[in-house]
Amino acid sequence: MAASGCKGRLLSFLDYKTEKYIVAKNKKVGIVQTHPVIYHRWVFLSKKGYQEKDEAIQSIVITKLKGVSVTNTTESGLLIWGPEDYVIPPQGEAVLFVVTNFLETPNQKLGYCAESPKVLDGLCQEDKDCEEDKLVVSGHGIMSGRCLRKDENSTGTCEIFGWCPVERNLHGGAVVFCNRSLLSSAENFTIYIKNFIQFPKFKFSKSNILETTDVSYLKCRYDEKLHPYCPIFRLGDITARAGYSFTDMATFGGSIGIQIQWDCDLDKGYSECHPQYQFSRQDIAASNKNIAMGFNFRHTRYYKNSAGVSYRSLYKVYGIRFNIMVNGRAGMFNIVPTAISVGSGLALMGAGVFLCDMILLYIMKNGTAYRERKFEGSQYVLLILSSPLTTTGCSANIYLLSTGSQQPKPATRKQPLVHTSQKHRKPKNK
Q1: Is 7 one of the annotated binding-site residues?
Q2: Which end is more exposed in the chain, N or C (fewer Cβ atoms within 10 Å of the end residue's Cβ)?
């Protein structure tokens, strides 16, 4: 028995297996079968799986602002603000700050004065609270040792040596600004952005400035429908496209991101590669009601009078910080990614066929019936059916009988088979 079983297993390797296709009228499995084809089509055509990609974009950004504003305050008087005054830094970089509002403490000189009452470390009741030559924590100078008070029952502030007078109390800044910016015309300032990019893998370089001889081109204003390739942007339009009011942002400041996106299909040619612009607000305090609202910092301007005495003006400036970011990628046809994409697609479709078979044969309710039809063993046997005896001999028909078929199939034979067995031999004449 063991020998016969081993022999059967050895002989089973000689069995020939061929595919049998069954058309299953099952829409659920049919839908599953279409997914690999749709996915491969999406990867190959929509995602350009036949292209070699380069995402290591090299970029340079140069900016230039234009516009003039006029302010008239008690401290500063009448001032004309140009780009050299309100743009920080003035040389034009990818990150720049535009002043839209300010508070000035003019004509500060080195000397002795009272510390600001906002500084907790500078409050005092008597002189011993103000240690001489000690720096005031978060203050404006060095203590002189004196406590300055209005009367004996009030809380005073330490006298300091520093730039005097100190910055005035800005508590309740909304009241000071009256909810508007001093540089009211800043909304109409324009920023000219020049962007030069390069994809080193393909040795491809380009600029966001169109190659044209039309002198009116650089008098345009960016509009995503009318002038999508114009490099000049109005500040009010930038904040509006980011979803915020310029007036609200200009009062206490904020941060705007300008995204330049390059997606270049180099198979289409040089002239078809253009940038796309997107705008968004980046600072967390998106509302002016937040306690940490806006964006501001301090800077000074130093002077010296005819007597050689140095003095300065202290500015606390509010404004909008612009951060210009450049991203991009380029693609070009290459046989290697094409072959990889085609091969992976064929493998995916093969896996899809296997998955559909598993669902159809082992998960669906009628899986048993499908398995019986798909996996069918066949062994053909030679069956001879003889006709009645004739005087000329015995003719016979040959049938190939399949154990997996319900009816025998006649074998094709040009001449009838004459059986010469002893049982049907022609009788001799007496």
Answers
A1: no
A2: C
Q: Report the pLDDT value the prediction gives residue 392, as an integer from 0 to 100.
A: 44
DSSP state of 294: S
- 247 annotated to bind ligand: no
DSSP letters of 95-141?
A: EEEEEEEEEEEEEEEEEEEEPPTT-GGGEESSGGGS-TTPBPTTSSE
Where exactly are the structural domains of the chain?
26-50+334-374, 58-115+166-332, 380-424
Annotated binding residue 78: no
Cβ distance 115 to 122 under 8 Å? yes
Query: Does the annotation list 65 as a binding residue?
Result: yes
Distance CA 308, CA 321 (A): 37
Q: Binding residue per annotation — 208?
A: no
Report whether 316 belongs to an annotated binding site. Answer: yes
What is the reported pTM? Answer: 0.70
> How far is it, in rounded angstroms, from Cα 149 to Cα 138?
21
**CB proximity list for 254: less than 8 A, separation 6 or greater:** 244, 281, 283, 285, 294, 295, 320, 321
Query: What is the identity of the amino acid at 83?
Result: P
> What CA–CA distances, in Å, run from 42 to 32, 37, 271, 328, 336?
16, 9, 26, 21, 19
Query: What are the strands, taking DSSP E only, across 266-343?
Result: 275-281, 296-304, 310-333
The pLDDT of 232-251, averaged and rounded, is 94
Query: Binding site annotation covers 246?
Result: no
Per the CB < 8 A criterion, the answer to whether 128 and 208 are in contact is: no
Q: What is the mean pLDDT of the chain?
A: 81
Q: What is the rounded distance in angstroms from the CA atom of residue 274 to the CA atom of residue 6?
A: 72
Amino acid making up residue 227: H
Stretch 71-83: mean pLDDT: 90
- What's the CATH fold of domain 58-115+166-332? atp-gated p2x4 ion channel fold (2.60.490)
How do beta strands 232-234 and 58-66 pair?
A: unpaired
Confidence of residue 402 (pLDDT cuts 50, 70, 90): very low
pLDDT in tens, 5-19: 676 666 666 777 666
Query: Binding residue per annotation — 190?
Result: yes
Give residue-wise pLDDT tens across range 17-34. Answer: 666 666 777 777 777 777
